Amino acid sequence: MSAIEGVAPTFTFHKFGLMVTGESESAALPSLFRSLMEHGNCTFEFFQKIDQLRAKTSQKHPLKVVNTDKTLPDKDAAIGFDARRYLSNQKDGYTHHVILIDDLEGLNENDARNAYERYRVALVKINPKDEHRVSIHYLINMLEAYYFVNTDALNSFVNPEGLPESQKIIFDNYSNDVEDMPHPKSAIKSKFAKNKYRAFNEKQAAQEIIPQLNVPLILSNPDTCAGLRTLFKWCWGAIGEPHEERFCFEEGKLYEITRYQPYNASGKTP
C-alpha cells in the first residue's frame, strides 16, 4: 500500500490457482478460502486436476529439463509445466501463485515426505525463479476430516428438510484433532451403508458443505489442524498481510513436512 501523501493507495492483487488430486476438491475447494478473500485483495480458483504422485518409479522416457542436467518423469514434468502456464499468465493484473493440494489417505509420514519432495522437485525444477510462488500442502488425512470439527454443515447436507425421521443420519463432532481421525470418509459412508434408502455423494457433499465450513473456527485451537493451518499461513504470507489471531498463526501447530516453503522472494517461510 502506498504511504505517499496525496497518492491513492495501491494494492497487489493475488490469484491462487489450485492444482488438486481429487474430484471433490476440484468441485468446491476454492470456497474453503473465503476468510482470506474477505480483504478483497486475493482470489482462489481451481485450474488443474492432476494425478497423485507417490514413491518414485522408473520411467522409460524421462523428460530432460531445459538448461539443466536433470530429467523428470513425464507425469512430474506435466505438473511443472502446467504450473508455469498459470504463473506466466498475468494479463489480468494479478500476481499468480500455484498451490498443489493432495491428501494423506493411505500414506504414513515417510510416504508423505517422499511424495512432497517429488511434487516439490516437479514444480521447482520447471519454475526455479518462481519457487516462492508455488507450494504443496496436504489435507490430513482427507478433505472430509474438516467436516467433523463442527458437524452442523454435514448434518444439514445429509438431512434435508422434510426427510422422514427414520431416514435421518446424525454425525457428532470429533472430540480430538480431526487430522488424526483415521478415515473420515469411511465414517460417513459406514453410516449411510446402514440405511438402505440413502447414498453418500462425495462431490455433491463438497459443493454444499465446503462453502459453510468456518475455517477460523477450525483453526481456533492452536493444538489441532496443523496441515490446514500451514496451508493458510503460507497463503497469508504470500498475500503479505499481518497475521490475524483468529487463525492462531503465531502460536498454532504447523505441519513439519510442508511448513518450510518460501512465500516471498526473500525466502521467508511460515
Describe the structure.
The two termini are 22 Å apart. The longest helix has 18 residues, at 109-126. The chain has 270 residues and is α/β, with parallel strands linked by helices. The chain has helices spanning 23-28, 34-37, 74-88, 109-126, 152-158, 184-193, 202-209, 215-218, 226-239, and strands spanning 14-20, 42-49, 63-64, 71-72, 95-103, 134-139. The protein is globular and about 60 Å long. β3 and β4 (71-72) form a beta hairpin.
Give helix % range.
Answer: 25-40%
Strand order of the largest sheet: 2-1-5-6
Unreliably modeled segments: 1-9, 58-69
Task: Give the overall average pLDDT.
Answer: 88
- Main beta-sheet strand count, sense and barrel state: 4 strands, parallel
**Total beta strand runs:** 6
Estimate what percentage of residues fall within beta strands: 5-15%
CA-atom Rg in angstroms: 20 Å
Structural class category: alpha/beta
In CATH terms, what is the fold-level topology of the largest domain?
Answer: Rossmann fold
Domain module tally? 2
